[in-house]
Design brief:
mainly alpha; single chain; two-stranded parallel ribbon; flat
Length: 176
């Protein structure tokens, strides 16, 4: 109910309005969430309203809850970009357009999260005639590259992550 009310307010008043409210309730969260990111602003305000605590108080700290080894695989950007393009091509070849078409018929556009997923969002735009299927594919590659860069910068800030290179010399064969 809280989320539905905040999403309605987002639709009516915009993300800037809600971002000002977030800044008053939790300045640290407001500094870390872009004023244009309505979905994350709604989520932060929802957590604040439900818990009565700042959103940042509910985020994981640097002290681990469980003992774990966290490993990041460091792939050179050109190789990662090529892997992303190949992966998107394979998704298209495996029938992603037909999958989205079927999900659209089942109400995908009404969903606030799934309809914005990488690939789904771009194909929905093509199905609506806003772009060609090839433009949707190219935009899926671009958006996925942007997402990978954001993930990389997020995890690079975490001192618990041990980074291993993806190059041949850094890989070790595991026993069978």
């Amino acid at each position: 109910e809280v989320r539905a009310r905040l999403e309605q307010e987002l639709a009516e008043r915009g993300s800037g309005f809600l971002h000002h409210r977030l800044a008053a309730a939790d300045p640290d969260a407001a500094r870390s969430i872009l004023a244009s990111n309505g979905r994350r602003i709604v989520r932060a305000l929802e957590v604040i309203e439900i818990t009565g605590k700042p959103f940042t108080a509910n985020l994981p700290g640097e002290k681990p809850v469980y003992e774990a080894v966290q490993i990041g695989v460091d792939v050179d950007r050109p190789e990662l970009d090529e892997r992303i393009a190949v992966r998107v091509d394979r998704m298209w070849e495996a029938g992603l357009v037909d999958e989205v078409r079927a999900l659209e018929a089942a109400g995908l556009r009404e969903g606030l999260t799934a309809s914005r997923a990488l690939g789904y969002q771009q194909i929905l735009a093509a199905l609506a005639g806003e772009c060609t299927e090839e433009e949707a594919r190219a935009e899926t590659v671009r958006a996925t590259k942007r997402f990978a860069r954001r993930q990389d910068s997020w995890f690079r800030r975490d001192p618990r992550v041990r980074w291993l290179g993806a190059g041949h010399r850094d890989r070790e064969e595991l026993p069978h």
